[in-house]
């Protein structure tokens, strides 16, 4: 995903630029949506996202292009909020990372930081 999303010379770069361009309504009002992706600012960072749900499954993709950082949240429970979870991961990574304790293992790591005690992240190669 990194090469396709973050490489300006990728064969997908023109399509991605167009998808990330917010739409303009007929009356000139700019929207936060452009061809399948939401474009907004969160905690001072440019954030591009897209989510969906189907038969009890929910998902969200959140990217911070300036940071070359992406979070994908996959949930198999209909009453979860994957966007909130993704934003918590971003906040942990950028705001809490220097102060949290982490236990690293061959299959990922476990974070131990106050209210998020026991949050488990699995490394994907």
What does this structure look like?
The chain is globular, with a radius of gyration of 16 Å. The strands form two sheets. The chain has a five-stranded antiparallel sheet, covered by helices on one side. The protein has a three-stranded antiparallel sheet with strand order 6-7-8, with no helix packed on it. Helix content is 22%, strand content 37%. With 125 residues, the protein is an alpha+beta fold. It has one domain: Beta-lactamase, CATH 3.40.710. About 12% of the residues have low confidence.
- Count of DSSP E strands? 8
Strand content: 35-45%
- Overall shape: it is globular
Q: Supply Rg.
A: 16 Å
How do the strands of the widest beta sheet line up side by side? Answer: 1-2-3-4-5
CATH architecture: 3-Layer(aba) Sandwich
Order of helices and strands: HHEEEEEHEEE
Helix/strand class: alpha+beta
Relative helix content = 10-25%
Q: Major sheet, described briefly?
A: 5 strands, antiparallel
**Text of the CATH class:** Alpha Beta
Mean pLDDT: 75
Kindly give the count of domains.
Answer: 1
Report, as a whole number of angstroms, the end-to-end distance.
11 Å
Number of helices: 3
As residue ranges, the low-confidence spans are 98-102, 111-120
The CATH superfamily bears the name DD-peptidase/beta-lactamase superfamily
Q: What's the CATH topology name?
A: Beta-lactamase
């Amino acid at each position: 995903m990194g090469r396709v999303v973050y490489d300006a010379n990728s064969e997908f770069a023109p399509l991605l630029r167009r998808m990330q361009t917010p739409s303009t309504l007929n009356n000139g009002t700019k929207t936060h949506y452009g061809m399948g992706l939401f474009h907004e600012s969160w905690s001072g960072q440019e954030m591009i996202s897209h989510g969906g749900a189907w038969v009890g499954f929910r998902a969200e993709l959140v990217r911070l292009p300036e940071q070359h950082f992406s979070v994908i949240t996959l949930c198999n429970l209909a009453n979860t909020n994957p966007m909130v979870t993704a934003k918590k991961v971003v906040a942990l990574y950028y705001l809490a990372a220097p102060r949290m304790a982490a236990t690293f293992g061959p299959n990922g790591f476990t974070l131990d930081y106050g209210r998020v005690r026991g949050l488990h992240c699995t490394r994907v190669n």
